[in-house]
Amino acid sequence: MSVIYILLAISIIVAVGFFIAFILAVKSGQYDDSYTPSVRMLFEDEIIKEESDKSILTKKD
Amino acid sequence: MEHRSCFHCGLDATSSEIIYDNKSFCCNGCKTVYEIFSENDLTCYYDLQEAPGATPKEVAGKYNFLENDKIVEQLLEFNSDDTKIVNLYIPHVHCSSCIWILENLNKLNAAVGSSIVNFGKKTVRITYNPQKITLKELVILLSSIGYEPYISLEDYSVGKKKTDRSLIYKLGVAGFAFGNVMFLSFPEYFEVGEYWLEQYKHLFRWLMFAYSLPVVFYSAQDYFISAYKGLKSKILNIDVPIALGAAVLFIRSSIEIMLDTGSGFFDSLTGLIFFLLVGKFFQQKTYSFLSFERDYKSYFPIGITKITSEGKEASIQVYDIKKGDRLLIRNEELIPVDCILIKGNARIDYSFVTGESKTVAKQSGDKLFAGGKQVEGNIEVDVLKSVEQSYLTQLWSNDVFKKDKASSFTTLTNRISKNFTITILLIALIATGYWLLNDSSKAINVFTAVLIIACPCAIALSAPFTFGNILRILGKKKFYLKNASVIEQLAKINTIIFDKTGTITSNKESSISYDGKTLSDSEETLLKSTLRGSNHPLSRSLYELLNGHDIVTLDDYREHTGKGIEAQYNDEYIKVGSAPFVGHTSDTATLNTTVHVSTNNQYKGKFTFYNAYRKGLSQLFNTLKKDYDLAILSGDNEGEKENLTKLLPSKTKLLFNQKPEDKLEYIEYHQSEGANVLMIGDGLNDAGALAQSNVGIAISENVNVFSPACDAILDASKFNELTNYLKISKSAIKIIKWSFALSFIYNIIGLYFAVTGQLAPVVAAILMPLSSISIVVFTTICTNSIGRKLE
């Protein structure tokens, strides 16, 4: 048993792993809206800054 | 007076004198929204963007149809006893503040679980608890903060619509396989005879084979299907040589590795499919916030209030309306069917239908057509026809709406592909014949090599990348095209037909002229003060026009719906309104909208409203007349004929009193004479003409609101740029022809290797991406330089 088989197996597993992650990402709708998340990620900071005495409401996606 | 703008919506608030919290507001509606936000610690809304809000509209009773469980059920995306999910379209969504406030809805009402905005589509997906809040209350909550959702008949039962993500999956699969195959084939490019490479190359090759299987059978399936369909209808489209090339690549490579005669072309195969799909993806630029497929359904409400025989109000679904029903149409509601006015004063805005912005007054007993919007109080009507049979909706039963324009049009790529495919097959046969005579062992290799190398990857990429880029450039210039084939169609146009109202005239501006006795200063002051109190659109525009005068507090003010207004200040008495109302009976029937004025029972004169033509109209027509036949089809009377003949080049055809069907037939007639027609219109009455024409462009003052089904939407502010846009479409075709020439050079180089029988996998693997990438670079540079010229 050569080391090449182990390396190939690992490379395929890693590649397939990322591929599955990609499929799941598309399926969950991540690619449907490519703009809003870029704006949304900037909000949380401002809320903490301005309303530090309030509880922060986090959204559950 | 110091200029102030509304803290909430940014409109002028100088004269409103509503001040709260040291901030000025233009109206109480805006102030109320601010109060709601400040009470709930949501003023962060105003930090993200200055004056982001909209004035909330009066919605009382408008959403009563949401009490009907059957209707609500059709709108929901997910429905269970303690959770419901609804996806609402909110036209006002326009900035980051909007996203922020809508995603913090649960601070305003704890019954809202979560809300997620899709900015591109202007929708918000709200999860809520139905035991604590109903959909109607939710919609009213949204309306109260200025985010009124738009619910139309089109939303009915489409809540479960699935988005098509197959292209992105296919692209992912191809990219994944392409990358891995490249890794595995890399060692063999150098043909190093090392011991371990010799030993393991079979394993590598079979792995490549395994990776290419999903590419051929999943990612590339559209090309095989399209080629098969093309052949079946005897058309050699571009997908035929692509499918042929891909099939030959796969079969030859599989045989090679089975017989151990070579490493195969799996790298080129997966690369080819990957690049083609990237091209397809690039071209698929869509404007998700625009809809090009609208029919009357997106204008019409879902539910309407019916008055039952016992005199009670009930919400019913629009499709359930029957002839003879009595309906209640509230202020700001759309009339969904043809009917007769029974009770109340109707003032109907037919701008959806005709593009005409002026409202029409109707008395009881008058017939009202579907598509009009009531703008003054509530009315009761008797139904004459059901939804499908009404005057306006009948237009959609015309065959022209069932025809798919894109499929009946042969694209430039497909026209070239026909000759290309025949040439390639000839070359392949000649070369095979030559090798059969000289070295028959090589013959089959040469045959397949020609088909592989000739696979028109670069040709197939030229059009998608050129058009995709042009679509983006035009989109930035506020000219939104439905798809790439519209550009090709635009380049072939030779006749341009315009609608009049709303297309070459502007709805926003109207010019007003006064004739009669000159008004004294005190009379003008009185007139302006009187108009100030009225919300009638004509009063508003006249008020804006009159020069600055002091506003006096009137002693007496009365508004007579559908007639006019009267007011008194000290001993002066004024009447403003229709001719009979002010006591002016000798008015010669003019075709234009007029407002008459009398003071102290003495007739003074009239203000006449004209539609203002768009700026640069005359110049635009004069530039266009050199290359195109021009015509104007108007649904209106001939009141403007004289004006138009003066304004436009003499050979422009002017036709008035055109019904929607007339417009459609006029275009059909010209097409049968060989004309390629571009129709430019705006209202629903142009929908038939827009569908029948080769390219239909809808003009829109605000692209976020409604426009009929069309091929392209043009922002009204860019109307006079039309000539440039037509020029760009022609340049785009030129660029594609040049890039075809470029890719033919690559093909000739490749064919040299192929016919001489020395096509090594590494040559194919270099040539294929090289040609594709250089084509992409070439088209990108060319289209961008055109885009720069436009500025």
Helix content of chain B: 40-55%
Low-confidence stretches of chain A: 48-57
Mass-distribution shape of chain A: elongated
- The fraction of residues assigned to DSSP E strands of chain B is 15-25%
- Overall, the morphology of chain B is elongated
Question: Regions of chain B with pLDDT < 50 over 5+ consecutive residues?
Answer: none
The share of residues in helices of chain A is: 55-70%
Whole-number average pLDDT of chain A? 73
Q: In terms of structural class, how would the helical and strand content of chain A be classed?
A: mainly alpha
Number of strands of chain A: 0
Q: Would you tell me the overall average pLDDT of chain B?
A: 81
Number of separate domains of chain A: 1
Strand % of chain A is under 5%
SSE blueprint and pairings:
The complex is a heterodimer of chains A (61) and B (791).
Chain A: H1 3-27, H2 36-40, H3 43-50
Chain B: E1 18-20, E2 23-25, H1 28-39, H2 45-48, H3 69-75, E3 76-79, E4 84-89, H4 96-103, H5 105-108, E5 112-118, E6 123-128, H6 135-144, H7 166-189, H8 195-219, H9 221-232, H10 239-259, H11 266-283, E7 303-307, E8 313-317, E9 326-329, E10 339-343, E11 346-349, H12 351-354, E12 360-362, E13 367-368, E14 373-374, E15 379-383, H13 391-394, H14 412-438, H15 440-453, H16 457-476, E16 479-481, H17 485-491, E17 495-499, H18 500-504, E18 505-516, H19 521-532, H20 537-545, E19 556-560, E20 564-569, E21 572-577, E22 593-599, E23 602-613, H21 617-624, E24 629-633, H22 641-647, E25 653-655, H23 660-672, E26 677-681, H24 687-692, E27 695-700, E28 712-715, H25 722-755, H26 761-790
Short summary of the structure?
Chain A is an all-alpha fold and 61 residues long.
Characterise the protein shown here.
The complex is a heterodimer of chains A (61) and B (791). With 61 residues, chain A is an all-alpha fold. Chain A has one domain (3-50). Chain A is 62% helix and 0% strand. Chain A has 3 helices and no strands. The termini of chain A are far apart. The two termini of chain B are 39 Å apart. The radius of gyration of chain B is 33 Å and the shape is elongated. The longest helix of chain B has 34 residues, at 722-755. Chain B has 7 domains: 1-55, no CATH class; 64-155, 2-Layer Sandwich (Alpha-Beta Plaits); 165-284; 298-394, Distorted Sandwich (Calcium-transporting ATPase, cytoplasmic transduction domain A); 413-478 and 727-791, no CATH class; 479-505 and 614-726, HAD superfamily/HAD-like (Rossmann fold, 3-Layer(aba) Sandwich), CATH 3.40.50.1000; 507-613, Calcium-transporting ATPase, cytoplasmic domain N, CATH 3.40.1110.10. Chain B has a 7-stranded mixed β-sheet with strand order 16-28-27-26-17-24-25, with helices on both faces. A 6-stranded antiparallel β-sheet of chain B has the order 8-7-9-15-10-13, with no helix packed on it. Chain B has a 6-stranded antiparallel β-sheet with strand order 18-23-22-21-20-19. Helix content of chain B is 44%, strand content 18%. Chain B is α+β, with helices and mostly antiparallel strands and 791 residues long. At the A-B interface, helix 1, helix 2 and helix 3 of A face helix 4, strand 5, helix 7 and helix 8 of B.
